[in-house]
């Protein structure tokens, strides 16, 4: 009885409950208590019971430690190296360049496969099915998953790893989700550098999953050896298939979700895509792209798809196209680095940063033409 009275004194009904409501409203608010982490009442104020500890910041790994960690495939140091490379801080970039310089001689031995497609086509599930197949073949697989960044909050979910539950448990697989951070072309800004780091860590196959817009993932073509487009039945007719864009850049098309009642529709879509690919110039000299049916859900067609990739490598290695493409990609990388550096220098220029808010206001108020605003900013940058 005394316990019930004590409980009534420690709780009260919300303000919105009508007077004389009786027991019709069973909701009650319990008064809070100051307690310890174990839930027991605290005899002293929290400031007196909390021990004072001197926390020292853990020292950052040196360049040599990061390099040694990557070469030994220390997954923690591998992830920290990629984080360092993705950082935009000037001090981090300088350190990252030193790490990349030492890792570069150990890179270049992996097969790079880019995978793109419309949202919902099952790219992540297909990658998991393919990755598990490759690991069972004794290969080490790295998955670089690019997640679209919000144009509003600038954030990314980075949830592709949760779709690869089985693959993420494998010791011979490394999965790295990265935000696109506004970079166009379906990849992240530092994807090329990340590929080199994973290659230096000893991974045999690098799978790059793009953001999945559908027809704009063109940048990834300039950093992979084999480019796969994942489609589904009902994505369009032959006319849609021959539209200029990602279709003319691919080395193969996988019509996914070919299972159950959808098998017949997938075969019809496969025929449509093959007809469309027939009218397009080959993306890779000496190789004619074809469409195949796959089911990431039950693994159907995954083995055959990998056989196509292996045949592609053999054909292009023999003709020299494989090596020539790698050289052109290195040149493209150089010019992309120059473009990124010029863009950063422009927006970080003191005169440009100072004048930018005022010029934006003039653009908003329509007191200045966009062309004139651009000219003013460029003149400030050149001065």
Features:
Rossmann fold; Helix Hairpins; 2 domains; 7-stranded parallel sheet; 11% strand
Q: What would you note in describing this structure?
A:
It is a single chain. This protein is α/β, with parallel strands linked by helices. The chain folds into two domains: 65-319, P-loop containing nucleotide triphosphate hydrolases (Rossmann fold, 3-Layer(aba) Sandwich); 330-382, Helix Hairpins, CATH 1.10.287. It is 45% helix and 11% strand. The protein has helices at residues 2-9, 46-49, 63-71, 75-86, 90-103, 123-136, 160-163, 165-168, 191-200, 238-241, 263-278, 302-319, 321-348, 350-364, 370-382; strands spanning 11-12, 29-30, 111-117, 141-147, 173-179, 205-209, 226-231, 252-255, 290-293. Strand 8, helix 11 (263-278) and strand 9 form a beta-alpha-beta unit. Helix 4 crosses helix 5 (90-103), helix 4 (75-86) runs antiparallel to helix 9 and helix 14 runs antiparallel to helix 15 (370-382). The longest helix has 28 residues, at 321-348. The model is unreliable at 149-157 (pLDDT under 50).
CATH topology of the largest domain, by name, is Rossmann fold
Number of strands: 9
The poorly predicted ranges are 149-157
How many individual domains?
A: 2
- Roughly how many Å apart are the termini? 85 Å
Tell me the major beta sheet.
7 strands, parallel
CATH class of the largest domain: Alpha Beta
Inertia-based shape: globular
Mean pLDDT: 82
Strand order of the largest sheet: 5-4-6-3-7-8-9
Helix-and-strand structural type = alpha/beta
Mind telling me which CATH architecture of the largest domain this is? 3-Layer(aba) Sandwich
Strand content: 5-15%
- What is the CA-atom radius of gyration, in angstroms? 28 Å
| Proportion in helices | 40-55%
Task: Write out the CATH superfamily name of the largest domain.
Answer: P-loop containing nucleotide triphosphate hydrolases
What is the string of SSEs from the N terminus onward? HEEHHHHEHEHHEHEEHEHEHHHH
By DSSP (H or I, 4+ residues per run), the number of helices equals: 15
């Amino acid at each position: 009885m005394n316990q019930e009275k004590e409980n009534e004194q420690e709780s009260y009904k919300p303000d919105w409950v009508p007077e004389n409501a009786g027991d019709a409203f069973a909701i009650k608010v319990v008064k809070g208590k100051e307690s310890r982490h174990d839930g027991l009442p605290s005899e002293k104020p929290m400031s007196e019971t909390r021990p004072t500890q001197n926390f020292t910041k853990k020292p950052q790994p040196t360049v040599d430690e990061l390099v040694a960690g990557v070469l030994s495939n220390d997954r923690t140091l591998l992830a920290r190296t990629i984080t360092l490379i993705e950082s935009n801080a000037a001090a981090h970039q300088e350190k990252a360049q030193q790490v990349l310089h030492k890792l570069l001689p150990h890179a270049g031995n992996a097969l790079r496969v880019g995978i793109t497609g419309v949202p919902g086509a099952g790219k992540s599930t297909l990658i998991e099915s393919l990755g598990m197949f490759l690991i069972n073949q004794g290969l080490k697989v790295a998955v670089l998953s690019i997640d679209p960044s919000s144009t509003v909050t600038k954030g990314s979910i980075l949830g592709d790893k949760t779709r690869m539950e089985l693959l993420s448990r494998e010791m011979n697989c490394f999965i790295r989700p990265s935000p696109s951070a506004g970079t166009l072309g379906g990849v992240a800004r530092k994807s090329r550098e990340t590929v080199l780091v994973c290659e230096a860590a000893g991974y045999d196959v690098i799978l790059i999953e793009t953001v999945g817009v559908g027809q704009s993932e063109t940048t990834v073509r300039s950093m992979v050896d084999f480019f796969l487009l994942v489609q589904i039945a009902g994505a369009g007719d032959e006319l849609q298939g021959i539209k200029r864009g990602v279709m003319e850049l691919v080395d193969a098309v996988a019509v996914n979700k070919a299972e159950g009642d959808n098998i017949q529709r997938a075969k019809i879509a496969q025929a449509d895509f093959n007809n469309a690919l027939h009218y397009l110039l080959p993306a890779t000299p000496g190789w004619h792209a074809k469409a195949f049916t796959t089911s990431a859900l039950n693994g159907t067609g995954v083995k055959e798809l990998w056989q196509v990739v292996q045949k592609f490598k053999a054909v292009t290695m023999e003709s020299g196209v494989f090596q020539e493409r790698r050289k052109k990609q290195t040149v493209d990388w150089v010019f992309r680095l120059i473009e990124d550096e010029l863009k950063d220098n422009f927006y970080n220029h003191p005169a440009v940063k100072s004048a930018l808010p005022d010029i934006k206001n003039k653009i908003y108020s329509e007191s200045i033409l966009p062309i004139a605003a651009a000219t003013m900013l460029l003149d400030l940058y050149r001065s």
